[in-house]
Backbone:
C-alpha cells in the first residue's frame, strides 16, 4: 500500500495522471527522440501528446524546448 501511494504521488507531481495511455506514449516517444537528438521526431511526439491531451503543460514545454534547440525561437515562444 505504501508503494502504491508513492507511485500515485509521483504521478500527481508530474502531472501525468489522468492522461490517456496514448498521450503518454507520444510524450515518451518525444522524450526519447529528444534525448537521441532527433528533434523532428521529438516535436512530432510532443505534438501527438498535445493533440490527445491539450492540457498537458509538460508536452507544450518540452516541444518549446525542442523548437529552441532547432533554432526556431518563434515557435518555442508560442509553446
Residues:
Amino acid at each position: 500500500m505504501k508503494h502504491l501511494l508513492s507511485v500515485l504521488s509521483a504521478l500527481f507531481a508530474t502531472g501525468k495522471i489522468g492522461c490517456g495511455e496514448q498521450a503518454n506514449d507520444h510524450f515518451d516517444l518525444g522524450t526519447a527522440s529528444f534525448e537521441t537528438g532527433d528533434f523532428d521526431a521529438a516535436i512530432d511526439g510532443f505534438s501527438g501528446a498535445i493533440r490527445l491531451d491539450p492540457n498537458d503543460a509538460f508536452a507544450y514545454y518540452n516541444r518549446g524546448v525542442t523548437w529552441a534547440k532547432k533554432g526556431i525561437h518563434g515557435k518555442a515562444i508560442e509553446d
Observations:
- The chain is about 75% helix and 0% strand.
- The two ends are 38 Å apart (CA to CA).
- The CA atoms of residues 8 and 17 lie 8 Å apart.
- Residues 1-10 have pLDDT under 50 and may be disordered.
